[in-house]
Amino acid sequence: MKINIKSVMALCSLFLTLMPISLAQNSAAPQSLREKLVQAIEFASQNQLQIISLKATPLSTIYEVELSTGEILYSDISGDYLFAGDMYQTTGSGLLNLSAGTRQIRTQQKIAAIPEDEMIIFTPESEIKATLTVFTDVDCTYCRALHRDMATILDKGIQVRYLAYPRGGENAESYEKMISVWCSDDRHKTLTQAKNGQNLPERDCESPVLAHYSLGNELGISGTPALVFPDGRLIPGYVEVDRLVTMLQVD
Prior knowledge:
Layout: H1 5-17, H2 31-43, E1 51-56, E2 62-67, E3 72-76, E4 82-84, E5 88-91, E6 94-97, H3 98-112, E7 120-122, E8 130-136, H4 141-148, H5 150-155, E9 158-164, H6 175-182, H7 187-195, H8 209-218, E10 226-228, E11 234-236, H9 241-247
């Protein structure tokens, strides 16, 4: 039987998005390795890159190196070689992405640090069963599709917290619109109007739009909508309500 590798990897990817995170090993790295990597990464880049964490992996001679950019590298114990890419563990039920665990924990921490008054939050009238954080662009077709599902999403007990992600940053056509949304007196109404394609009165204020955009880039987001689940999973693109309910394990 001929095996289609792309199909196998696609199934593994879907499987991994539904799996709980795996915590990295907490063993301390040798001081000599830490010093060598600091010299090669931090000093050589004039501190533009910084090592956030250096942790052991299930492989005794390989260490996980997390950078301030959000990128994860792996180093051999000598520090002479670094390589990029995810580390997988084979299990009886499939492949377990060990690298995803670190990314999810870091994503959780960074999202938790954002004050909710910087967000545009749509909250169910009844019990909140789950919270979904969404990086959005008002001109994005699939962002608009997700927003049209809002009434159904709220009926399912899912709270939606929007963060701004104008694709292209200050150069995006949607940038000024998103500033106007975040600076309006009624963000909920104005956001809905913008996603419906209505013209907005221009507003300006000190807004978190660019800060949200920078955070999105740091998390590896390149398009919208980008959905951040409570466990730190980052799912790109539009997801239908029924699948959202399943992924969030909402009854």
